[in-house]
């Protein structure tokens, strides 16, 4: 083996150890915003094994781990409650990002795909990344006046409601 061949192999080996597209483009944790109407509702975030990872009040942003370790994604249950209102529970699910799937084909290779990204959790994305809970009063009446107009930013609209929206010009 020539001196140049050894240097090339060593360079690619070192690069391969640190390359993983999701690791480069993502983080081990993710910030999840939690709001409620009305404000000051109690928030309890519980992970998939029942461990309470956060307790506080809305509005809040919580930084959550996306992985338990090698190929082990985290999932959470977010309970939002306030006296006089029905509790609302939202599930946070992890899914694999496009950076992990496509990026490792182009850049990270097998080392990124099977070693780097699965070890640090950057390959996952928690969804939804923003929760806006409109709490319903326990007497069955909505917290929102049916004759009022509520304006929200598009980023605050839950994904499951976006498909029912109509654009008005």
CATH architecture classification of the domain at 28-96 and 125-158: Sandwich
| CATH fold-level assignment of the domain at 28-96 and 125-158 | Immunoglobulin-like
SSE succession: HHEEEEEEEEHEEH
- Specify the CATH class of the domain at 28-96 and 125-158: Mainly Beta
Q: What general outline do the C-alpha atoms trace?
A: elongated
Helical amount: 25-40%
- Taking all residues together, what is the mean pLDDT? 74
Largest sheet: 5 strands, antiparallel
Gyration radius over CA: 22 Å
Rounded to the nearest angstrom, the distance between the terminal CA atoms is: 68 Å
The number of helical segments is: 4
Number of strands: 10
Side-by-side strand order of the widest sheet: 3-2-7-8-9
Percent in strands: 25-35%
Low-confidence stretches: 16-25
Estimated structural class: alpha+beta
Brief summary:
The chain has 169 residues and is an alpha+beta fold. It has four helices and ten strands.
Explain what the structure shows.
The structure is a single chain. With 169 residues, the protein is α+β, with helices and mostly antiparallel strands. It starts with a helix and ends in a 7-residue tail after the last helix. The strands form 3 sheets. Strands 3-2-7-8-9 form a 5-stranded antiparallel beta sheet. The chain has a 3-stranded mixed beta sheet with strand order 4-1-10, with no helix packed on it. A two-stranded antiparallel ribbon has the order 5-6. The protein has 4 helices and 10 strands; from the N terminus they run ααββββββββαββα. About 6% of the residues have low confidence. It has a domain of 103 residues: Sandwich (Immunoglobulin-like).
